[in-house]
Automatic annotation (TrEMBL):
Tree of life domain: Bacteria
PROSITE patterns named in the record: PROKAR_LIPOPROTEIN, TAT
Keyword field contains Ribosomal protein: no
Keyword Lipoprotein attributed: yes
Protein name: Putative lipoprotein with Yx(FWY)xxD motif
PANTHER family assigned: BLL4220 PROTEIN
Region (Disordered): 33-52
GO terms under biological process: alkane catabolic process
Signal peptide location: 1-17
Keywords tagged on the record: Lipoprotein, Signal
Amino acid sequence: MRNLRRTALLTVPAAVAGLLLLTACGSDGKPAATATPAASAPAASTPAASAPATDKAATDKAALKGSLAAGNTAKFGAIVLDGLDYTLYRFDKDTANPSASNCNGDCAAKWPPVPVNAQGTIKGIDAKLVGSVTRADGTKQLTLGGWPLYRFAGDKAPGETNGQGVGGTWFIAAPDGKKAAAGTGTGGNGY
């Protein structure tokens, strides 16, 4: 039994080192690009044993904000939600190729950027379409189909879509990164 424990302890660090090496290099052995697709599964993490329960709850909530899920509405069809089921938006003044965010300062207060989170998850969305962009303040923001993603401060509850069409430049994001199409949904999530 003692030898099994020792083997397991040696295997875990070796596996972690292997994953780090694979993450740092692309498939051709060269360093990976800075805008990388997000993983389709949550990253493994071990909370510190001494962390209070409230810190874990805050961490879990932050991880959910960096998550993406496909939803469906009767009014707007297929849409993108964060892990807390808040609607996500894209901004016509941003660019998708190359990805660039043009919402900063007061704009970012009204339209909070969706942060990149290693613990975030992706459900019902092609992980190949998910990436990130570095914002003017140096933080990382999730992108979908190259378009930076945002929440709207005017959405006070999950499933609200109050940001649709604001200023003729803000639109609900569809799971392919394009604008959600009005009137094509089934209302499957009850929004």
